[in-house]
Structures are given as structure tokens and as C-alpha cells.
Amino acid sequence: MHRTSRLAAFLLAALLVLVLAGVAGARAPQARQGVLDVPAVPDRPLALQGQWGFAWQQFVDPAWQQLPTQGFAPVPSSWNTIDGKPAGENGWGSYVLQVNCPVGASLAIEAVGQRTASRLFVNGTEVAAHGRPGPSAQASWAAVHNRVPITREFACPLRLTLQISNFDHRAGGFVRPIWAGPSDVLERAREARLVEHAALLTAYLVTGAVALIFFAVRPREPVPLVFGLFCVAIAVYTDMIGERLFLRPLPDQVSWFGYMRVEYLSWLAAMALFLLTLRGLFPVEIPRRAVDVVLAMLGLASLAVLALPPAVYSYLVVPGQAIAVVVAVLVAVAMLRSARGGNTDARVLLLGMLAVLATLALDLLMIDTPGPDRKFSTLGFALFLLSPAVVIARRMTAALNAEERSRALEENARLREDVERISRHDLKTPLNSILGAARLLRDDARLAPDQQELVGVLQRAGLRMLEMVNLSLGLFRMETGTYALRPAAVNLREVVSRVLVDLHPYAEEHGVALQWRGSHPAPVQVRGEELLCYSIVANLVKNAVEAAGAGAQVDVTLAAGDPVSLSVHNPGAVPPEIARRFFEKYVTGRKIAGTGLGTYSARLMARAQHGELRMRTGAQGTTLTLTLPALKGALPAPASAGTAQAPQEDWLRALPAREVLLVDDDEFTRLVTSRMLPHPPFHVETASNGQAAAEAMLRRWPHYLLLDMEMPLRSGVDTVRWAREHEAAQGLAPLRVIMMSGNDDEASAARAGQAGADRFLVKPVSRERLLAALRELERLQPVRPASAGPSALFQPHPAAPGNDAPRAEDEQVVIDAEWSEVFPNFLQLQRETVDAMAQAAAAGRRDELRFLAHRAYGALGAMGLNWAARQSRALEHGAADTPEPELQQRVRALREHLDRLQVEYRPADSTS
Q: How many whole angstroms separate alpha carbon 277 and alpha carbon 331?
């Protein structure tokens, strides 16, 4: 920090020396009463300043021999406050000066424009014109030369006449000095300034180009874009007040109005982009509200420049410079605070900021003082240019290194996901066999009641394990924001009671008492998923038991309301270093085998259900509070079962004989799945892998192919692809394919559909789901389009149009009795979603409509409401370009369909 202070002091001192040197050079020699004595030929450019003769509202004859005026005025200076003329900037007049240089010598003149209409004469000869001066605004035309002209040499003494009219600027008169000297001296000085100016512009533009190239490569990084545009804007502004190199391709005389607009707009843009660059680099240190206020002011100023004449908007200079100084001070203070905290980037930027602050302040102080047409702020911005460039370069290097690390992490994450997916698949395969065998045993009437009870325990344990396997994938989807919540009515009081019973032995082992407060038997219904609720509560209670310590007590309190609140309190306190990051991933405290994922995943599951999980800790202990949305409204009564579909047994009895090839590398899955298919009408042949399946199909072409996705020798995808190719080549009857997999992601379903599968079922596959899929395929046309997409896997037709009218069977649905309490609320939620779709369509919020339709598609399809799911998918795909009346008509049709649905609840022991 001391080094930063020393460097800042050095920069300020250097700037002060430059100012003093400029001021000193501007004071010698001085003209008196219209005469400037030059005893010797100058060896450097001489500023012709001091008292010039002044004639108000008069264009004197430039061929004068004796000084033609009685009045005098300081030069350079605006005439707004000159004695002997009315106050104000508008008007016209003449300035005259006699330069008594050595007899026999000759001098040239560098004719600098006066920011208005002017015409310069030397010894009666016109040498430069900037527009056309006149006695009125109509007779005057202001312009700027595209370069500063240097005249030929004139013999001494010199008699200069400058005719000026001003109706287009806030400062009228002789505001910029004219320079004299030998032509070679003026040319060398001009060349030096051109080289310096060109180097400065090159630095601006090259730095800006590098920043813009970096943005083109990494468009997600906006700061380089803003900084690159800042470099372009400040380059334009610097050139407009300097050597005007950008005007060289244009005519000699450039319109004053266009030139002034470019100068002011580039100045305002540079200030805005300057602030946005700092805001992008330091979003925490620089408040957004202050930036918005400044940008709004600069935006209004830009509109004034575009809409008003220069005579009006040129008054923006002083307040604009004042605003820039104030903003620079505020930003410098923010950078200073950040630098004190050890931020190296802030220290680097602070040096550039101090340079800008100093030069802007100097420009403000010297805005109307005599001097050449130059700004110290250009030097300050040049110094500033280096500081953000260094900061951006540092961050670019860090970003590239981070990308390398990110790629490695992504590869590790993909590897982890593959391992987890394989693990889930390997777990689901035996689970499918266990659950299928348990279901078959449960349907066996020969089992004794105690045996039936044991089979029920086995089935519930298998389902519980399956839920936990699926939950691991759910957490990943919650992290990535792709989790599709399936809300239902959950009695949170019952969930808490079950958790406390399950964890009672664990608490006794740790010597901790569990106190259940508010154990009133009345249900406390929340809107969520039971498995997620159980997982959250179990996590909170288990962590509280571990944190409480032997002999302590954990209090669990449930409070009804909206939202419902559940608090778990233990007497232990969370250390401050852990409390600040309590819900972050991999943060753990005193537990020896802790992974730091418990509270992180608990809050993920809470937020996935539109709830929240908070922690409060202190001397009185630690309390974690879970809030979940209460279930609103009473559940409707189940619909009448009088309009149910025909019983499954009737359909099976009427079905002709069907040959089925069942392919799975797990022998138990083959056994259980084959037992699910009644004989007759199904005759099942099995194969253990895709190669064996191909050989079996060559021997005998089946009606149905049921196969696993992942198998040795030849995968299910490759097997289906081969079967479709063989089917087409030999002209065989269309094969109906059902692919089964433990992978429950969209990508797996898409792969199956692209290979040629007609249905994709996620393991474990129940008897009801399998028979329902077979029944749907029986209703399909015999020929399957070769280009059917993956969405056809979940629809009754390979290519459902989405606007087809529902048939009678579409408005009848059979649901297992175990869903009887959940389905009415599910249906009501879908109706509410469709109502929200109608509102979004009417308001033109098509992105919202697409999102709601996508969510409805997944939920309706999962419950077997196929026509409604197809309509939702059509609305999702057509949300962007379908005419609004058609969108609203489709939404209304979907809502009416959901109102007409008739539901039958199938008994749990039914085989239909």
C-alpha cells in the first residue's frame, strides 16, 4: 500500500509540473495594446497572446497599416465578459495584432480554429478559414478544418486580423491561441504532436481491439466488451480535441454541428463505459444504484446533444466535468477500501483512477483559461487505460486456468455421473427382480396370512430401497435445476412420527433424548413429495442427535400454518467459521466421517418443494427450521367408477396369440418379467444378450421384442437398430419394441427412440405398466414410421399431431387404488397449471407458456393421461410461433378435457 501511495504522489507531481510548465509557457511574451514585440526569431512555437486590438460588431479591413481599433481584449479568452461589449456569447467582431519581429526576418502562422466561424488574415492575405463568419446567425456558418493549417512565411512585421462570429457555442471569441515561428519550427512541433497523438490513438485502439477479440472468444465475459468500446470512444474523443486524424478522409471543411455531436457523444460515452468497466471489474465495491443514476444522467445528456443545437448543449461541459470528478472520487474511495483489504486488482486500478481524477479536476479548473486546444484528461485516461488492461489480463489468465480446472472437474463429474448411473442401473436390475417376485408371491392365494405379511414387508423394503436409489438422481437434477417436482398431499406430522420411530434406536445409542412437541394427532398437510420430506426430516434429526452430545435433548416442534414450520433444536452451537458456510457443499464440522452433503442436500430438497431451510445458532443452541407450503383446499371426492375401461382380462382373452422375445442379461429379471405375461395369449422366449436375441429372431420373427438397454456383447440400442434394418431388408412384419432400462433420463429415452423402439419403460417395470404398454401397441397401426422421434415412446401414436380431438377412451383413466388419495389433488394442480397457461397465452408471455406446458407434459404423461400429455407437448413446441388465437383454443380444449376426465380406482389385488 505504501508503494501505491508513493506512485500516486509521483503521478500527481508529474501532472502538476506539466500544468505549471504549460502555464509558464503561456505567459511569455505578452502582447500589449495590440502590439507584440519579438526581439529575435523564436526557435520554438510562439503563442500570440496578450492584449489584442478588439472591434465589436465590425469586420475591419485586413489590409490595415495602423492599428484600426481603440479597444483591447485578452487573448486567448472568451469575449462573454469583455468590457465594452454587451454580456453574452453571441455576436461578431475582429481581433487585430501587430507582431514586431526582426526586420528582414519572416514567420509562419499555425492557424488554430476558434470553435466557431472565423477567418484569419496575415498582412492582408487570407491564410485560413473555419466556416464563414457573418453579422447574424443566418449569415454565419461555423465549421472546423480537418487539420490545423500552417501558413507560408510572411516578412516581418506581421499584421494579423482575425474575424469571428459566434452563434453556436457557449464561449464566443478568441478562445484558442495562434502560434507563430519559422515554418520549419512549426512543422517539427506539428510532426512531434502528430507522432505523440498517433501513438496515443494506436495504444487506445490496439488495447480495445485486444479486449474485443477476447470478448469474441469468450462472449460470456462482458467486461472486455465494455472496456474495448471505452477504448474506441476515448480514442474518438481524444482525436476530436486533438489532431483530428479521423477527419482526414473527409472534406477540408467539416460541418460544425456534426463535429460537435461526435465530440460530445464520444466524451459522454467514454465516461459511461469507463464507469461500466469499473462496475464490471468490481461489482461489490461499486454500488449498482449509483451507477444507474450516473448512467441515467449521461443518457439524458446524450439525448440533449442529439436533439439540441451546440449553442445549448455546450453548456454541459462544466456540470459534466463536475459529475465526472464526483464519480471519480467516489470510485477512488471504493478502490481505496478494497485495496486496504488486500485486493491487488484494486491497487492497480487505483493508480489509474487517481490519474483520471487529477486530470479531470485540472480540466475543470482550466476549462476557460488561456491555453492550447488540449485536455489533460486524455493523459489521465491513457494512464487509466493501462490499469484495467492489467486487471483484465490478470483475470483472463485466471479464467483460462480456471477453465482448464473446470474441464478437468467436468470430466470428473461426467465420470462420477457415469459411475452413479451404472450403479443405479446395477441396483435397479436386482431390485426389479425382487419387487416383481414379491408381487407375484403376493398374488398367490396359497400363501398363509403370516407369509403374506412377510412378502408385504419384503415388497415395502424393496420399494424403499428403490426410492433411495432414485433420490440420488433427484439431487443431481436439483443441483442443475432440471428436477421435475411431482407434488402430492403429504402429512408432515406422520412423516415426522415415522422418522422419530426410525431414529429412536440411533438416539438411544448416543444417549440423546428425542422430545416431540406438538404431537396432536390432527394431520398437517403440506404440498410436496413424501420421500423428500422424509429425507429432510431424517437428516435434520440425525444431525441434531450427533451435535447434541450424550445426556442432551433434541426438541422437534411442528407448527401448522401457511407455510407449515418444523423446527429441530439441539443445545450445541455451530462454530462461527462453519455457521457462515453451513449450507454450502462439502462443509462439515465435528463429525469424523462427515461428507458435508447433509445440510446442503436438505436445503436443495426443501427448495425443490418451494420451501426453505434456515439455521439459527448461538449460546442457547442451534435451531434448524424447515418451512413448506401448506396444502390449500379440500381434496375432491373420487370420480365415479361406472365408466371404466374394459377389464384387462377381457382384453387378454380376446387377444390372438403373440410371440414375445424377452432379452435381459439378468436371469431374475427374465424370470419375473416372463411371469408377468400370461400364457395364453403370450408365448415368451428369452435371450441373455443382444447377440443371442439376433440369432433367435433369425430363427423365428416375433411379434414383440422386450429388451434391456444395457447388455453385454450387443446392447439393446444396437439390437433394436439391427432388428429394424433386418425388418426393412427382408420385408418382415413390423416388430413392436419395448425397451426397458434403469436409466430414467431423457437422453436414454431419446437414444431408444432414435434406434427404433416404440416404448421406453423405466425399471422396475410393474405388470400393470407392461400390459398397458402392450395394449397401447396393439391399438397402433401395423406399420411404424422409420423416422419416429423419441417423443413417440410416450404417446399412443408414433407421431401425434397434438391438436387431435379426444376420443371417449381418452377421457377415462384407470388408476391404482394406492393413488386414490393423491390423484384428485394431482388433477387439480394440473388444472391450475393449465389456467396459468391460459393467462400466459393471453398476456403474450410465450416463454412462460412453454415452461408450463413442458411441466404439464411430464406430469400428465407420468400418470398415463396420454391425450392431455400430447396437447401439452404440442403447446410447448408451438409456443414460440403459433398464432395467439390458436394457442388459446388449444389451452381451452386441454382445460375442458381435464374437467371431463372420469377416474376409476383399481383395487390393489386386481390383475386387470
A: 12
Q: How confident is the model at residue 798 (pLDDT cuts 50, 70, 90)?
A: very low
Q: Over range 799-822, report the average pLDDT.
A: 57
Amino acid (1-letter code) at residue 352: G
Cell matching residue 145: 478544418
Range in 496-505, 668-677, 696-705 the model is least confident about: 668-677
For 387-445, what is each residue's pLDDT tens digit? 777 777 776 666 666 566 656 656 665 655 555 555 555 565 566 667 666 666 766 66
Topology (CATH) of 31-181: Jelly Rolls (2.60.120)
Bond prior to 764 in cis (omega within 30° of 0): yes
Residue that is written with C-alpha cell 489533460 in the block? 376
Q: Say which amino acid occupies 304.
A: A
Q: How far apart are CA 613 and CA 484, in angstroms?
A: 20
In the three-class reduction of DSSP (H, G, I as helix; E, B as strand; rest coil), residue 53 is classed as: strand
Nearest 10 degrees: CA dihedral of 509, 512, 517, 522? -10
Architecture of domain 198-402: Up-down Bundle (1.20)
Q: What is the CATH number of domain 484-628?
A: 3.30.565.10
**Considering only CA atoms, which of 632, 675, 696, 312 is closest in space to residue 303?**
312
Kindly provide the b/e burial profile for residues 688-726, where b requires at least 16 CB atoms within 10 angstroms of the residue's own CB.
bbbbbbbebbeeebbbbbbbbbbbeebbbbebbbbbbee
Q: Which amino acid is at 199?
A: A
Region 111-121: what's the mean pLDDT?
88
Q: What's the chain's length in residues?
A: 912
CA angle 159, 161, 166 (to 5 degrees): 165
Beta strands 91-100 and 35-37, pairing class: parallel
Single pTM value for the model? 0.46
Sorted by sequence, the CB contacts under 8 Å of residue 877 that are 6+ apart come out as 802
Spatial CA neighbour of 845 closest among 898, 894, 891 = 891
Q: 3-state DSSP call for residue 67?
A: coil
Asked if the 800-912 domain carries CATH number 3.40.50, the reply is: no
